[in-house]
C-alpha cells in the first residue's frame, strides 16, 4: 500500500485538470445546495453583507450569496484553483485564487462560509482559526462538511467496503476525515464562538439522482488508484459500481453536517 505523505486535494486528488471534475463538483452542488441555501436563509443573509465563500469550488453558493447581498454587498469567492469559478458567471464576485493555509489579506466579513473543504486539509485546525479571525464581531461562521454515518450501514456490502476503502485512501493520501463535520460545534466553541448549532442532511442514493452521479464520477477517479495501491479488490470495485447503476439502488449518501456559530458582538 502506497502512502502520499504530502498529498493535497485539488492536486494529487480531484484536480481541476482531471476529466469530468467540473461535472462531479456540479453534481455535489446540486445535491447539497438546497440544504445550504435553507440554512443560510434562516441565518438572515441580507443586502449589504460582506461574505467570504472559502473553497468555493464551482461557485454555486457564491453566486447565490451575491443574489442575497445585492449591489450594496460583496461576495469574495476563493479557492486553490479558480478555473471553474471563472468559467461561470463571476461578474458579481470578487474571485481570489489562494491557498487557505496562507491566504492574502481579505478584510473582515459578516459571513464566512466553507463547505466540504476543511475535512480534506491536513492543517484544518490552523485554517479554521484563520477563518474565525476573518469574521467581524457579531458576524457568522458556517461550516458544512462530511459526516459519513450512513454508508457503513449500506445493505450492499461491496458498496460499504468500497466507501470505507475510499475514506482510507483519502485519509492516507490527502488527510481527509470522514466525520469531521460532527466535530465542528466543539471546534467553534473552543475558539469562542456563541449560539453554535448543528444540523445534518443525508441525501438519498437512488437511480438517476445527482447524488448518485456524484459518487459514480468520484469512483471513476479514485477506483484505479485504490485498486493499484491495494486499498480495494478489483472485483469489489466492480460490484460497488454496478450497484450505483442498478435500477434497484436504494441507499443513503454521506451526510452534510452544518455548524453555525456567531462571533460575540464585543469580538474574541
UniProtKB/TrEMBL annotation:
Q: Which UniProt keywords apply?
A: Methyltransferase, Transferase
Q: Which GO terms describe its molecular function?
A: methyltransferase activity
Looking up Pfam families in the UniProt record yields: Methyltransf_12 (PF08242)
Q: What is this protein called?
A: Class I SAM-dependent methyltransferase
Q: Which residues form the Methyltransferase type domain?
A: 52-141
- Transferase: present as a keyword of the record? yes
* Domain of life assignment: Bacteria
Q: What organism is the protein native to?
A: Streptomyces rhizosphaericus
- Methyltransferase keyword on record: yes
Q: Which GO terms describe its biological process?
A: methylation
